[in-house]
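1st attempt posting a full record on here, be nice pls
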Amino acid sequence: MESQWSIGDLLGVSSAYWKGCALQAAVRLDIFSCIHTSNLTSDEVATRIYADNRATEMLLDALAAMKLLEKKDFRYTNSNFAKTFLTTQSPQYMGHILLHHHHILDGWAQLDKAVTTGAPIEKRSYGEETERQSFLMGMFNLAMGVAPQIADQLDLHGKKRLLDLGGGPGTYAIHFCLSNPELQATIFDRPTTKPFAEQTVDSFNLADRINFKSGDFTTDSITGGPYDIAWLSHILHSNGPDECQTVLHNTVSQMEKGGIIFIHDFILNDNKDAPEFAALFSLNMLINNPRGRAYSESEIRAMMHIADISAIERHPFVGPNDSGIIFGVV
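the predicted structure (as tokens):
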């Protein structure tokens, strides 16, 4: 059945980046953290963030129109949502992933060029270290929203050793270990990720159960096995089909017989036209990555079969952005 678009829908989608940019600017300027629990005028906010008074008031009014701030008697306070997710004082702060979205926005503005050339786009740089921190801690933001739920839903009873491949800050390894007291875990990722992972693991007091091994899983041998569980979260979409196949083969080589490999990703249907987020995410990969894309369930199953993974099943878990899990036995 054909979707019924309206002119309002059309204009809303085309201008949706206005709201995104307003939100990202507020996070970059640290407006929500500046206000925190205070009740401030626009001039007071402008002074604290070293910004122009008139322009600051316009941004604050837009944020109030978006219901992220509340405005009364020319003073601004954070909404309960903003206090919980947009202030750095909150343990549930989501600003890192919003800054990552800000850093890739320039590429999305050149999507037509990416489609024409079939190659990633040259974007403005905000500094390699700044972009790395926002990406890694942004992945932590997102994973923290689903990792406890996934850890509760996956039956790892009796399993002893987990490989968190490309685990970044180790969010999933942490929650799998919290839910399974007998489990030990290894995070395998690039050396630049190690400081973030160790800091995060330490914050959960799990340094005695979770270790970090450095390497590029697309070119280096995976070490530290044998493992009886492997968790590959958002790994396949960063690679082309040949690299995905190599990663799966290398993972299998480090698994015990009977071990389980879980693949968590944005999984397209076999027609590749849904879910919407997965289809759009493929475009994000086009802009930023020479070969990566979202894969369909049948494509992932075929890769797993070639890697000698059997008893392949789709787990019922569905994430907030329609991520899914496919698993099988080595």
